[in-house]
């Protein structure tokens, strides 16, 4: 991020600049959130995620005049990118698939497990991901947004185009289904 | 936090690498809609909601350039596309009033000519032949091979344009991608113009664009 008098610009300043037509400030904003936005698009549209992110970002640039100053930028960007990803998924006529693998390193906080422990943990992670993958679209996406991307309820609501209350109830039901499938009751 | 939620949150996943879209952006300045003295009629924004099917970019995207409603995407390898005549797939014939409704102002240059409408894109064939397309909100996505580029030009004072002299692929809504070349695009106010003129060079295309813009007063 660029700095002014040694101080990095905060998001609010970047938004103000971008709204005045500063493409560089907008690029800085995108850079701050593109990883989350890309992963969200990947959860929804799979291999079309890069196209979805790119088109979503361009749409956001064009729509920036309608962005409410003072509002949070990330949920707004996520909503646009997620819409683009959904459009692509619909056009491709396929179900969203996680297509994710657990990283070999495993769960955060593990302290140098033995190869045997690591193998067991890896198998458990794979089983959990399989159980998540087997959930219906709605349930899988809400859990992925909340726990894999660590989005807030408000951000998840923006990304999925539903109300915050819906996120809450959908998350609760999805966790129940996952517990049932994964056997962690 | 219950165990299952904690386990989900702690999963480290092998996500695909995030593409640096921010680093590839070359955004033309977003200009505030201004009232042009020469185009007093051009005041209402066209709200054209066109669904836009864009082929997947299977090759690495090198750079994205945005001007008006045009996205120019440089890729390593052009996607498959057909060679088709300029007159193909222009849409359905439409009257000047209907075209103006979509554009938010009359089609330029004015006069009696055949206009065609395709998902918010209004086109006409000028002598040459030259294909002139004008549109409001939707995007027009082009893909250009990595070895070529889009050359910035100034169509008129304060009116930026891009000259795409090399072969590229253009994607209009509802039509398969097709090969194009010798294209000038520019944006004025909320309307984006695209001039495809295989028989004209860059300079002649820019002169024609100026003449088209100059007819706004008439």
Describe this structure in words.
The complex is a heterodimer of chains A (185) and B (218). Chain A has helices spanning 11-19, 23-45, 49-63, 73-92, 115-133, 137-148, 153-160, 164-182; strands at residues 3-4, 7-8. Chain A has 185 residues and is an all-alpha fold. Chain A folds into two domains: 7-92, Rna Polymerase Sigma Factor, Chain: A; 115-182, Arc Repressor Mutant, subunit A (Orthogonal Bundle). In chain A, strands 1-2 form a two-stranded antiparallel sheet. In chain A, α2 (23-45) packs across α4 (73-92) and α3 (49-63) packs across α4. Chain B has a domain at 84-137 and 148-217. Chain B has helices spanning 3-10, 21-24, 96-103, 202-214; strands spanning 25-27, 61-67, 70-75, 92-94, 115-118, 121-126, 130-135, 140-145, 151-156, 159-164, 168-171, 178-180, 183-188, 191-196. The radius of gyration of chain B is 20 Å and the shape is elongated. In chain B, 36% of the residues are buried. The model of chain B is unreliable at 31-59 (pLDDT under 50). At the A-B interface, α2, α3, α5, α6 and α8 of A face α1, α2, β1 and β2 of B.
């Amino acid at each position: 991020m660029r700095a002014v008098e040694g101080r990095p610009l905060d998001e609010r300043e970047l938004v103000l600049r971008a709204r005045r037509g500063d493409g560089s400030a907008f690029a800085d904003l995108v850079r701050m959130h593109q990883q989350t936005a890309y992963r969200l698009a990947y959860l929804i549209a799979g291999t079309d995620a890069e196209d979805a992110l790119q088109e979503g970002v361009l749409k956001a640039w064009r729509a920036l005049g309608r962005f409410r100053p003072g509002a949070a930028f990330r949920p707004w960007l996520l909503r646009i990118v997620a819409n683009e990803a959904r459009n692509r998924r619909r056009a491709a006529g396929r179900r969203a698939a996680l297509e994710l693998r657990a990283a070999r390193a495993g769960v955060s906080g593990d302290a140098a497990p033995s190869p045997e422990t690591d193998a067991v943990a890896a198998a458990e992670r794979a089983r959990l991901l399989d159980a998540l993958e087997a959930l219906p679209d709605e349930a899988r996406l809400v859990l992925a947004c909340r726990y894999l991307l660590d989005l807030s309820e408000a951000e998840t609501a923006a990304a999925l185009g539903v109300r915050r209350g819906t996120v809450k109830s959908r998350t609760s039901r999805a966790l129940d289904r996952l517990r049932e499938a994964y056997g962690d009751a | 936090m219950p165990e299952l939620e904690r386990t989900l949150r702690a999963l480290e996943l092998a996500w695909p690498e995030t593409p640096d879209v921010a680093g590839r952006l070359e955004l033309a300045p977003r200009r505030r809609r201004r009232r042009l003295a020469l185009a007093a009629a051009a005041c209402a924004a066209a709200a054209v909601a066109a669904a836009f099917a864009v082929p997947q970019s299977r090759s690495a995207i090198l750079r994205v350039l945005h001007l008006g409603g045009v996205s120019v995407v440089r890729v390593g390898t052009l996607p498959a596309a057909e060679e088709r005549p300029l007159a193909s797939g222009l849409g359905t014939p439409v009257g000047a009033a209907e075209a103006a409704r979509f554009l938010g102002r009359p089609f330029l240059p004015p006069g009696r000519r055949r206009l065609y409408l395709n998902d918010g894109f209004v086109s006409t064939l000028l002598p040459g032949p030259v294909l002139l397309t004008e549109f409001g909100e939707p995007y027009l996505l082009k893909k250009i091979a990595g070895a070529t580029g889009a050359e910035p030009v100034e169509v008129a004072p304060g009116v930026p344009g891009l000259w795409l002299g090399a072969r590229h692929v253009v994607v209009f809504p509802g039509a398969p991608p097709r090969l194009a070349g010798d294209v000038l695009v520019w944006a004025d106010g909320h309307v984006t113009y695209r001039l495809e003129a295989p028989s004209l060079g860059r300079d002649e295309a820019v002169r024609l664009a100026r003449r088209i813009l100059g007819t706004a007063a008439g």
